[in-house]
Design a protein that fits this description.
Elements (H helix, E strand, L loop, with lengths): L26 H8 L20 H13 L3 H13 L4 H11 L5 H8 L6 H19 L2 H10 L4 H14 L4 H8 L8 H11 L4 H7 L5 H14 L5 H9 L5 H14 L9 H13 L14 E8 L4 E8 L3 H16 L4 H17 L16 H8 L1 H13 L3 H14 L2 H5 L6 H6 L4 H14 L11 H9 L6 E5 L3 H12 L6 E5 L2 H7 L8 E5 L3 H11 L7 E6 L15 E4 L4 H6 L7 H20 L11 H7 L5 H12 L4 H12 L5 H18 L5 H13 L3 H14 L3 H13 L1
Parallel strand pairs: 3-4, 3-5, 5-6, 6-7
Antiparallel strand pairs: 1-2
Helix pairs in contact: 2-3, 2-4, 3-6, 4-6, 5-6, 7-8, 8-10, 10-12, 11-12, 12-14, 13-14, 13-15, 15-16, 15-17, 16-17, 17-18, 17-19, 18-20, 19-20, 20-23, 23-24, 23-29, 24-29, 29-31, 30-31, 30-32, 31-33, 32-33, 33-35, 34-35
Amino acid sequence: MLQRSTWSGLVLSAAVFSAAWLTGASESYAQDAGAPAAAAPAAEPASAPAPTGSLKQLADDFMHYSIVNNDELAKANGQALLNANASPQDFLAAFEDAANGRNPREIMLRDQAREGLKDVAAQLLDRLEEGHRSVSRDPARIRADIERLGNGPRAYDNARDHLQAAGQFAAPLYIEYLQDNSKKELHPYLVRMMGEVGRPLLLPLVEGLKTPVVDLRITLVKIIGEIGYPQALPALRELQADASTTGELKSAVDLAIASIDKTGGAAASPASLYFKAAENYYDRKPSYQPLLPNEKTNPVWVWDKGLNNVSPLAVPTVIWTDVMSLRSTESALRLDQNNPQAISLWLAAQLRRELTLPAGVTDPTHDASKPPADFYARAFGPVYVNPVLNRALDAHDTPLALRAIDALQATGGINGLVSDSSGAPLVRALNSADRDIRFNAAFALARANPNVEFPSYFRVVPVLAEALNANQPGVIVVVSTDEDARNKLADGLRSANPPYTVFSANTVSGALEQAKEAPAPVAIIVANGTEVDAAESAVHASPKLGQTQVVILASPDQQAPHKAENGHPAVVDSHAGADAVLGSLTNTTSAGDAAKYAATSLDLLGVLTADHKSIYDINDAVPALMGTLKDKDSNVATKGAQVLGQLNNADAQKALANAALASETQAALKATFLTSLAESAKHTGNTLDASQVNSLIKIVQTESDPAIHLAAATALGALNVPSNQAANLIMDQSNK
């Protein structure tokens, strides 16, 4: 056992803690910061009594037993600390008083790597950081530290540690003091301190430039120039361009811009600079992200005219960059309303803000009485929504892309969908590697059903066919000259959950020939070698294979395993099994979505088939439609048969005949398939072979079910069978 001792206090460095709202800066924060911590879960039953003693003693014992690797006692003391439900300030004070050279945060972080302590240690660290936030941002403490700045070098240094820990949350008090003429002796020290705190103060100080007090503006401009970050340039440039900015303020602004802008970019208009800042926030550029990424909220600073000061709004961290992008685009539009790029960017940020905001969480910057983002997407129309879709595709942002596609479907005529200055992003979406985006783009273009061809129009039906088969077993092609390995992998894929239909051969061309009547393969699995080029060439050359993924089987010394990305094949260890192959695929859709996609695709194929002047060739979907005839859902089978019956396609007619003649087909579906077969004969003529016709005649001669009997007779008549077969029917009925 280590020798125990009495521990002295240690002031914890602010740098090791994450930050939150300035206590007292707003009523909501004051309530949050002052609220007691939530009750911790009750301690698990233990054979020994729960530890007792002061908070300091419990903190001391927790750190001691953690260091000596006594997990049981460390956990017991840690749980006792949590159960004490102390205020954040008292909790922090207990560890500061018990530290004696030990770093409580480092101890808690190490404990999180130990199975028996990780949960308790994580809760303790949360409480510790909550305590530090409450203390470092306490307005009374900040005021006391500001007052000490002029009391000599040592007092200044001590105050600086606390004020740097307070960071941006001290800004309202700095601005308050700078406006207080009775505190003029502190102003030089205060300005010096603000420069030393630096970047954390930038955004509240930029917002502070809205003050009508010219002297305060001059001071803030000088500090902003010293801090030196480009986020300030739009506001500074707006001041510079304002004809009312003269004299000392104008000189201060010119100097600040020169200090910050080393490239000459600030010569652009203020509106352009606001728009550029909005893009940087939207794209989450490194210096445009929240300063406190590990906290649930980050402040967005607003100007309070009544207080003549800045005030923080606690915005959920996950939407902070979107909110800042919205504010910057609004500033750009305030100066230049004829900026379509800013309008589209505002819409993208507004849509993404809504999509990202967690359920039950509010955004204090948003007026809930205003319409939702979808309202604006519909009101603005394709000219502004198309660039949103392009942004979403660039960022691989599926939820945003789907919202944009929904808006385009609701408002876009064909010109708005496929003829756009931004490069027809809906056509681009049609070729997306993301299944959800690809399917919804095809649905939108199918519903539009244009009468003029557009780029990649021939991709619409193959994607509809792919969507139709989304809830069917996928098709995979396996290519390898090693027959044993090929068969083993094929068997594994057929036994997977869900199972796959597998075609295998020693060449790509041979395997694809086997699969030509099947829906488009999800993937071509090919052993490393010359056939890799053949697989990629086949995918690039065929619209049907446009979204088929190539997966290379390679030994680790040849290529490191990885998923498909940026159009390049996936690589899987050649000794791995079916699970590894399936894990490398990126085209996956939930069962619920798959059923929805299949139903939507079938409905649209039916609409397009009925329009015999459509530019879309539904024959590309025949293999997929043929697959619906075996669907367990009779509604799907019925709709599929109806679409096939509308086509002038010999394969479709033969598939209908085979389904109708199959002994396992349910009676209700037999009549349906025969009715569709009759419809097919009207469009295609008779393409059945003699055995199929004879089987059909046999049904007409022997079937007792009236519905099937009539449907078979109708089909036989529509097929226009030779007269001798008709005569047989006459003679047959005559003998009866």
